[in-house]
Q: What sequence folds into this?
């Protein structure tokens, strides 16, 4: 007799959790349609759509010609008529031809119809990283979308949350842009069975501490979390927020945290300049200036395109070392502590190259 | 697949419209012209005060296209339009007051003053949406058609657009998908010969725009927009073809814009139209020529025309008065309806 082992949590990769979230939502509501280039092919968008053709009426899986603006518009049109459209693009860059439909129609139909038309649309954009993806296959474009009123923008990272965020995004009557980093896809964590939603209601506090407030978006939440855990072993406890929802941006908890710690560090998966950290630092400074005990700091991508070569990529992405360096400077940590945490981090990385995901950062979380 | 690619539609022979149909279409042609020309006359405002403070793209000269097509559409068929949406809105049966109120920026406008003249809609008659970026509403119509197809509904979506829209990639993308999925969509291309000041001959090698539809295996029809009965007959054939499950049809309607691209004025003095072109089109005006046709057929009388003119003018004058009197929306509501 098979007895499920209820004691051991079920560990899934974030990409599998996303697939479960999409599948459960599609089972729960027959209005859900899936659009993708290769919607049911052998890859099925990095496995995130695999098996959907068996789970639901395959007519609800719509093969996209390579025509992103037109197909985004068609998915929006279907959503205006009551469908719940899910578009999955293998690279975020493929959304660029579709900015016209996303910005003019998806983001504004509710407004320009005076509240009569709704656009239940989930647009999933996968951001490449590593193995030489280069300038046009690794762009984390979240702030482009986060600049547009009417869109919601999410960056799911951790498996349980990612599954619930997918279901919540599909249930949402607004257009939701989901930015999924490929390295976040590899992160593992416990994931509940069945249908559930994780509200798209703002940042999530991952770790608590009084020394400093770290706000990380997307995959950088995993980097920040691991570094924070190593620091905690050495007596330095940080507040670590996973930003999760970039628009609407709800910073009340982060501002309260910064008031308490007096120190704010942001870590972007995208660019530092005009990154999410820019807006977060601005709002925290506006509202909690007198509580700050040190200038806020921002980490993010440098101000140039993503190079392909692993020679050029060294130091390009913020990582645990960069976060450690910033935290150490802001807290004036003793050099001995910094050295020990640095050594522990180096140990965990096991000499893996800079251009492939590291098991240390895959969890389980 | 092979079968789909061979779908064809024969050129349409026209017989005179039934009297009731003819009267209905004439009343609508007359109404649209009257509305557009009164907007043009009043756009400058009284004294120093302009009351219609948004861009306007008038449809005068193009009424035959809108009326001929919309006469064969049901309220449950959805129309998607462009910046030049007044005639589409009125031909589809859109209510006057919310349109005038919208152009006047009033809270009672069809979209509460959020859109202005380029965003007209009246869902009660299937005037679903107008989007002022060229080509932008075309895929929305295909999305509606996709929904009808998936849900087994008998409705069709009609995408109205101008001759410039077929230059945009999104039209081509939508046409291909519509053909692949056999969608119930009518592409209505109103060729008014100009993209603002730039003539079609500087943008396309040939004025037969249906050749682009044919490239996707979509049957194309072409109608003289100054003859509303020809437009209607072609639209009838197209809509029947679509409703029978044969997939999309492209209908080119040749027409002409009398006034400037944007605004209430004539612009013949600028010189971008060849000498005599405007006058030649006006000689075959879709409203007055149809009036003369129906008078000659004995379907209407001079007295009917006068009575229509009086009744429609009275409705319009009171509509403008009501629009002027209506309150503006409150500034504090400008941030409403960003998120559902």
A:
């Amino acid at each position: 007799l098979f007895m499920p082992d209820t004691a051991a949590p079920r560990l899934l990769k974030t990409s599998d959790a996303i697939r479960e979230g999409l599948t459960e939502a599609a089972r729960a509501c027959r209005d859900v349609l899936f659009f993708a280039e290769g919607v049911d092919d052998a890859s099925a968008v990095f496995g995130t759509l695999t098996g959907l053709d068996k789970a639901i009426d395959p007519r609800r899986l719509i093969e996209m010609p390579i025509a992103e603006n037109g197909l985004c518009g068609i998915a929006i049109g279907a959503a205006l008529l009551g469908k719940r459209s899910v578009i999955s693009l293998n690279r975020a860059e493929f959304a660029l031809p579709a900015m016209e439909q996303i910005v003019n129609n998806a983001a504004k139909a509710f407004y320009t119809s005076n509240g009569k038309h709704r656009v239940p649309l989930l647009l999933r954009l996968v951001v490449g990283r590593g193995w030489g993806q280069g300038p046009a296959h690794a762009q984390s474009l979240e702030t482009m979308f986060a600049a547009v009123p009417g869109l919601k923008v999410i960056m799911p990272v951790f498996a349980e949350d990612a599954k619930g965020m997918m279901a919540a995004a599909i249930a949402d009557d607004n257009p939701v842009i989901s930015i999924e980093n490929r390295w976040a896809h590899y992160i593992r964590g416990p994931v509940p069975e069945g249908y559930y939603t994780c509200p798209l209601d703002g940042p999530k506090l991952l770790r608590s501490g009084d020394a400093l407030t770290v706000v990380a978006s997307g995959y950088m939440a995993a980097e920040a979390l691991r570094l924070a855990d190593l620091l905690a072993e050495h007596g330095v406890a940080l507040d670590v927020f996973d930003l999760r929802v970039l628009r609407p941006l709800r910073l009340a908890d982060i501002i309260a945290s910064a008031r308490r710690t007096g120190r704010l560090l942001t870590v972007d998966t995208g660019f530092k300049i005009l990154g999410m950290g820019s807006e977060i630092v601005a709002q925290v400074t506006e509202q909690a200036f007198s509580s700050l005990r040190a200038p806020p700091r921002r980490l993010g991508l440098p101000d140039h395109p993503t190079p392909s070569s692993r020679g050029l990529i060294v130091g390009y992405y913020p990582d645990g070392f960069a976060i450690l360096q910033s935290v150490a400077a802001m807290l004036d940590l003793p050099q001995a502590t910094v050295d020990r945490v640095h050594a522990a981090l180096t140990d965990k990385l096991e000499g893996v190259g800079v251009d492939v995901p590291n098991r240390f950062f895959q969890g389980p979380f | 697949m092979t079968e789909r690619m061979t779908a064809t539609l024969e050129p349409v022979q026209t017989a005179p419209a039934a009297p009731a149909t003819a009267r209905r279409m004439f009343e609508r042609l007359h109404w649209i012209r009257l509305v557009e020309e009164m907007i043009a006359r009043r756009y400058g405002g009284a004294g120093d005060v302009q009351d219609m403070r948004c861009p306007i793209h008038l449809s005068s000269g193009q009424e035959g296209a809108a009326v001929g097509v919309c006469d064969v559409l049901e309220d449950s068929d959805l129309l998607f339009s462009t910046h030049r949406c007044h005639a589409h809105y009125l031909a589809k049966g859109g209510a006057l007051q919310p349109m005038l109120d919208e152009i006047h920026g009033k809270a009672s406008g069809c979209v509460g003053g959020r859109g202005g003249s380029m965003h007209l809609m009246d869902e009660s008659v299937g005037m679903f949406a107008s989007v002022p970026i060229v080509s932008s509403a075309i895929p929305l119509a295909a999305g509606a058609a996709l929904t009808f197809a998936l849900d087994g509904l008998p409705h069709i979506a009609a995408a109205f657009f101008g001759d410039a829209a077929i230059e945009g990639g999104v039209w081509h993308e939508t046409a291909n998908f519509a053909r692949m999925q056999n969608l119930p969509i009518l592409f209505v291309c109103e060729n008014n010969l100009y993209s603002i000041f730039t003539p079609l001959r500087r943008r396309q090698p040939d004025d037969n725009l249906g050749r682009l539809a044919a490239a996707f295996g979509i049957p194309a029809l072409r109608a003289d927009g100054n003859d509303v009965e020809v437009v209607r007959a072609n639209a009838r054939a197209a809509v029947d073809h679509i409703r029978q499950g044969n997939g999309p049809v492209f209908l080119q309607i040749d027409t002409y814009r009398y006034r400037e691209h944007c605004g209430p004025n004539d612009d013949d003095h600028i010189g971008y139209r060849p000498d005599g072109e405007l006058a030649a089109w006006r000689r075959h005006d879709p409203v007055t020529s149809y009036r003369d046709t129906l008078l000659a057929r004995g379907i209407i009388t001079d007295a009917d025309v006068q009575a229509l003119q009086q009744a429609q003018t009275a409705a319009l004058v009171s509509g403008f008065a009501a629009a002027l009197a209506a309150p503006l929306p409150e500034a504090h509501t400008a941030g409403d309806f960003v998120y559902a």
Chain B touches chain A through 41 residues (CB under 8 Å). The two ends of chain B are 41 Å apart (CA to CA). DSSP finds twelve helices and eight strands in chain B. Confidence is low (pLDDT under 50) at residues 1-6 of chain B.
